[in-house]
Amino acid sequence: MELTTVWFSLIAILWIGYFVLEGFDxxxxxxxxxxxxSEKERRVMYNTVGPVWDGNEVWLLVAGGATFAAFxxxxxTLFSGFYLPLLLILVALIIRNLAFEYRGKKDDDAWRRRWDxxxxxxxxxxxxxxxxxxxxxxxxxxxxxxKEFTGNLFTLLNPLGLLGGLTTAALFATHGAIFVALKTDxxxxxxxxxxxxxxxxxxxxxxxxxxxxMQVKTGDVASAVAFAVxxxxxxxxxxxxxAGREGWAFVGTFMAIALAxxxxxxxxxxxxxxxxxxxxxxxxxTNAAATAYTLKVMTWVAVxxxxxxxxxxxxxxxxxxxxITVAHIPEPTGLRPEDFVDAPATARED
Length: 350
Hints:
single chain, mainly alpha, two-stranded antiparallel ribbon
């Protein structure tokens, strides 16, 4: 197999890893106002993803870095053409990460409420925009002979792109609800399971419509098989959720997202960014790739370091595998508003 094909496959795997792991992260943040009914339940939801959210984002960093190094033409066209949506995603991820870091620093309801809003916005926005972006990448966008994107933000907001955004948002919300049910106990667990059933039906309808549309537009036999198995996995996950088998339900949504993203990359290959202006202008794994020497060095680096990263992340999930309930949540330890008002002047100067 050529190294260009190897690296296209590795980048596809990195995006699959990002969406299946960060997908439930997004879902937990998206559902925070709907599943948590008290401060302690909100903290339970934060703690379900607290030990793993930053590790999940590593997959995005590596996917972006690998694209830059292995396919510089793809990276240049994608990140310049999709500048505004990718910037919005970046800003959303930053405010979301700040919510995890700073929410507990101050024992004040208004303070926590503002960071909760940041978490919700920072989860919904990427969940929608990633779907819009990938629907356009696979279906094709206007690219000229100089490999430059000639559209704008509204070019991306076409019916297929918007359906892609709604699909990823619904899938991630369902994935997140099932993860909350898997990681908690008590009222919030039952509430999450019921929510997952309702959201899952919406996600199934949207996902089937999106995959059929993509298959008709640009798919082949391999992508059709992947999409079909993804649909079966999603329905199986929802059935397991109704039966109270949350572990199998999570496996179902995990596999559904993985196979759906894999199907998109199968439909895309050998292009990496098709042109709707002229197929001769399309970026492919050949004309967008780095030199053979660069790909060879990258391959050896990946062979050495990928197992280490995977083992560390698996160890993290194993360590924090137990369920969390409101009984595990201690009283707030952040600074109180009066700590700022009553602090001695000398202490403030220090």
